[in-house]
Structure formats: C-alpha cells, structure tokens
Design a protein that fits this description.
It contains six helices and five strands, in the order βαββααβααβα. It is α/β, with parallel strands linked by helices and 152 residues long. Strands 3-2-1-4-5 form a five-stranded parallel beta sheet, with helices on both faces. α1 links the parallel β1 and β2. α3 packs across α5. The chain binds flavin mononucleotide.
Length: 152
Amino acid sequence: MRPRVLVAASGSVAAIKFEALCRGLAEWADVRAVATASSLHFIDRVSFPSGVTLLTDADEWSAWGKIGHKVLHIELRKWADAMVIAPLSANTLAKIAGGLCDNLLTCVVRAWDYGKPIFVAPAMKTPSCGTTPSPGATSTSSPTSACPSSRR
Ligand SMILES: Cc1cc2nc3c(=O)[nH]c(=O)nc-3n(C[C@H](O)[C@H](O)[C@H](O)COP(=O)(O)O)c2cc1C
C-alpha cells in the first residue's frame, strides 16, 4: 500500500517549487496538499498535478456547515501517515512555535498525532530569520535567531 503524505506550503518564495515537490512525491505516495493564502501567490494551480488535491483555508469552511459534519483538518490528520511542510515560512514557523492555529495548515499541525512523523523545510533569507531578543534580555545580551550561525 502506498504511504499517504500530506504536504503543505507556506508563503516562502520557495513555494514556486511546491508543484514539483508534489509531483515527485505523487510518484510513490498518495498525496494531498495544503497551501496557505500567501503561498498561493507562488503556486501555479493550473499546472498542479491532477492527482493531487490542493486544499486551502476555504475548503476547511466549505466542508463544514453544522455540528456533526466532518472537520477537514481532523480528517487530514487521520488520513496522513506523515506530513511535510515545505517550504516553511518564518511566519508559519513562529505561529507553530507559539501554538497558533488560524488557518488550515496550522490547524493540522496543532491537531497532529505526534506518533506520526512531521518534516519541515524552513525557507527564508537571513533577514527573515529575525534577531528577536529573548524575553527579559538586556541590550547587551546576544539576540536569538532561527538561522544557523553560518548563514548569519
Ligand atoms: C515576494 C515575497 C517573497 C517572500 N519570501 C519569503 C521567504 O522566502 N520566506 C519567508 O519566511 N517569508 C517570505 N515572504 C513573507 C511571507 O510571504 C509572509 O510572512 C506571509 O505572511 C507568510 O504567510 P504564511 O506563513 O501564512 O504562508 C515573502 C513575501 C513576499 C511578498
């Protein structure tokens, strides 16, 4: 049986490769795709592989009308054997780290069964990584950063 892979894109410019990623995964896996609103600026929906369903925030709400209806992010959590977030934007990374869940992608992550693997591919240029001072840090403290030191 083919593995079921849920692949998600957030709004990094690297999402221009999302269609190719889905196409490659679909050669050996059953693939469903989730895209944030920002990532849709980089994704060519016309050339998206026909066998891969591309789901957006609108689908979360069109699938649900009243109590008893299925909830899309829960159904995706149950369906998938693994999740891949590629690319993972700085914004979505921060939201996940903070437990926020205001779109389909982050709702799936918040509901995820961590007995199953989840892979992420952060994709942002160095300035996007941020140099956010730690809580309580003084002006003489070193900033923290999501970037590997070699890229700063
Ligand atoms: C042209 C363009 C390219 C961008 N590239 C990146 C990027 O590579 N990485 C990133 O983290 N954010 C990038 N951003 C910023 C995100 O799109 C922005 O933070 C957005 O709110 C992310 O939303 P999302 O995380 O819900 O997908 C880019 C924005 C624009 C306009």
